[in-house]
Amino acid sequence: MAASRWFRRLTSALTLGMALLGAATAWAETIEVTDLAGRVVKVTRDPQKIVLSEGRQLYTLAMLDRDDPFKRVVGWGNDLIANDPGAWAKYLAKFPKAKDVADMGNPYASDVSMEKIAALGTEVYILDLSNYFKAQETGLLGKLEKAGIATIFVDFRQDPTQNVLPSVQLLGRVLGREKEANAFSDYFLQQTRRIYARVGAVPDKKKPLVFIERAAGLLPCCATFGALNFGRFIEEAGGRNWGSQFFTGFQGDAAQEKVLSDNPDIYFLTGANWYGSNPGSSAVSLGYDATPEKVQKEISALMNRPGFQQLKAVQGKKVMAFYHQFYDAPYYFVAELAMAKEFYPDLFKDVDPEAVFKEFHEKFLPISYSGLFWAKLQ
């Protein structure tokens, strides 16, 4: 009788074990996706170990894995810690184990440690599209493939107005977070379409000419944006980006004399808290830890550089600073809302961009809103 009970227990245990093994096999589903480089990639759906080549890819991951953006991140680039300390402090306070994520170093360095990626047990390595050719030329893609590590390319920087939605949808599929990706897409379309619907009928001759200085106070004047990224944000918001007539890419360097001579209607600049990584920075320290008083001093100082006081934008207080990290974030449309309201206050009198960004945090992000993300010269 005892032997019979023992046999039944053994049979039940084996049956349970087989069921669990079958479930595990089902969970490890392999899917095919097309990434932002146009590559068809086989990847394990819902991977448990991923590496972010850039730390600022967390801006998107935080929307998809809102309960714990670090639960599957085993390694990441150090750019978020270095370039957005306000955001890093907020995430670290809520998710202390974030400090244990392996530091993969500077994501823009010439080489990437294949050995370190493999040693972390990485299932999926997420790369920015701007690094595609470098990853090909160095043989990194081939090495990762041989090691069984799927690599997918996303783009939140080179051409974000075209590639944010497909990048978020791609990550949603790979991470098993389609519901969250779709919710973001709906919100994104609601916000961006109300901009385009209102400014689409504005004739070009009535649109203001806008110069935007990229990383003002960190980079030499006058680094700017071409027809993409912040340059495209300006145009989608109903302005004419000065740099689009000279630079087809997302960045370029303009001669200060030319900018001053052309005397744009509105002067924008981007800034962030770079003081930790760049002690000599005099940029506008926008972000989660920004204060209005400090930001105003920094904007005023930049617009008091020799020659800038003659600009009609300065004289008419048509100067605005924007959080630089919008250039690499899926919620860049908040900057477009603020621009559109500045260009056409009557068309957007019912729109409160700050309220939208606060709502976005409440709906999609695990951290609370704080600080300052744009400011106008007073």
From TrEMBL:
Keyword Signal assigned: yes
Q: Which SUPFAM superfamilies match?
A: Helical backbone' metal receptor
Q: Where is the Fe/B12 periplasmic-binding domain?
A: 49-351
Please give the superkingdom of this protein's source.
Bacteria
Signal peptide: which range, if any?
A: 1-28
Listed A to Z, the keywords are: Signal
Among InterPro entries, the record links this protein to:
ABC_Transporter_SBP, ABC_transptr_periplasmic_BD
Matches recorded under PANTHER family: MOLYBDATE-BINDING PROTEIN MOLA, VITAMIN B12-BINDING PROTEIN
Specify the protein name.
ABC transporter substrate-binding protein
The record lists the organism as: Bosea spartocytisi
